[in-house]
Amino acid sequence: MSWTKEDLQQLVKTKLADRRFIVVSNREPYIHILSGDEIQCIIPASGLTVALDPVMQACGGVWVAYGNGSADREIVDEKNRISVPPDEPCYTLRRVWLTKEEEEGYYLGFSNEALWPLSHIAYTPPNFDENNWDIYKKVNQIFADAVLEEIGDKQAFVFIQDYHLALLSRMIKAKNPQVITAQFWHIPWPNTEAFRICPWGEEILDGLLGNDLLGFHIRYHCDNFLETAKRMLESRVDNERSAISRGGRTTLVRPFPISVDFSRITRDAAEAEVEEEMEEIRRRWQLGDEFIGIGIDRLDYTKGIPHRLNALNKFLAKYPEYRGRIIFFQLGEPSRVHIKKYRELNSEIDDMVEELNWKYQSGAWKPIVYIREHLSPATLLAFNKLAHFCIVSSLHDGMNLVAKEFVSSRTDEDGVLILSRFTGAARELTEALPINPYATDDFAEAIKRAIEMPKEQRQARMKKLRQVVEENNVYRWAGNIISELANLGL
Hints:
It contains 18 helices and 18 strands. By secondary structure, the protein is α/β, with parallel strands linked by helices. The protein has two domains: 5-259 and 474-486, 3-Layer(aba) Sandwich (Rossmann fold), CATH 3.40.50; 262-471, Rossmann fold (3-Layer(aba) Sandwich), CATH 3.40.50.2000. Strands 5-6-4-1-7-8-9-12-11-10 form a ten-stranded mixed sheet, sandwiched between helices. Strand 16 (389-392), helix 15 and strand 17 (416-420) form a beta-alpha-beta unit. Helix 10 (262-269) packs across helix 15. The longest helix has 22 residues, at 130-151. The mean pLDDT is 95.
């Protein structure tokens, strides 16, 4: 049986009682930007916010996040708060402000040039800069001060998100030991040999062990964390309980596979606006009976975008009969463009798309349509519904919610998901076509198989995929975390 929004609301009411519910993340769920003389509210391209926003809409409470939109300061009150979502407010967004130097050192520097590549096996070396580390600590304290201000003299449950805030729980509890904290690490946790190269690894581990509960997507990442703590810290690791004791406190380490709001996506996919967007896409690119493929990603080197372009090249070279009959839409919002590795990735993708289109172009047909801009939720749903197949080719991914969003949007129970074995999602979505993105020939064969798969088989597979995502939705994810905390005496 699938969890509902109402199930989660009842659980929160029962288990959290009078405690304040506070979520903390670097990324905010709603961004306000200046567009000419008007202020627009947009939803960022972020799996974290896609997953957590429906949880907050169900639970209420306060979401503390960094406000970096060009109009964010203009619409908050004197306490830096605003009620969201804009159309039907039901929780509070509390924004914290950072200077350019703080954003560069904490977010671009330590979080995404050190911790991100350290955690992902994508063969990009991390850069450890002491100044960035100092700023990272400073910004974690800024977030801690904001959270403590929101808590005041009340009891609270603070739910911390991701690798940007590894020191936060320890800082909060230094001022208020009674606060219950849980943290979800949305990316992989590396093995001990990889993690031990971090010069401040012990401090990061100690910060994370300030939490009462620490969650990862899959058991493998939990095991890596337990082994890392065992080898690098003076602590007592209980593998049977999956718990770590240090300094008189115990942290439970648990797998919680994150998901999406299946019901909402399914409902939104049936809206007239999405049908209108589908017609606009068909008209704009003069689509007929071509096979449509899609890839939807932040432009990040962990997502394997060059690898899928190589596979498409191999496919078109090996099976020329499909030239003119397939169009692949690569949708990608630029990400972290101030980091050199990301600028290089953008240039590499540009060059590959141009080369592939030059190589295979015939008349008005080109195999790749590359859209590098922020797209509305309705437009993304339209592409999901139009596609014959969706490629998720991550080289290493904690979960990958794009795969689950694609499945949730397919109300026709059709379409094929081509899914990297190196995603957390691959452990749940076993009816997808599995690929190793590094194995280009096999990858190309998977594209052929997706195109040629009989409709009955496509629909049987998609029906099973949808059942999995519907049952293991985001409300179950949040409910399991809150229930686990309740077992601690919350």
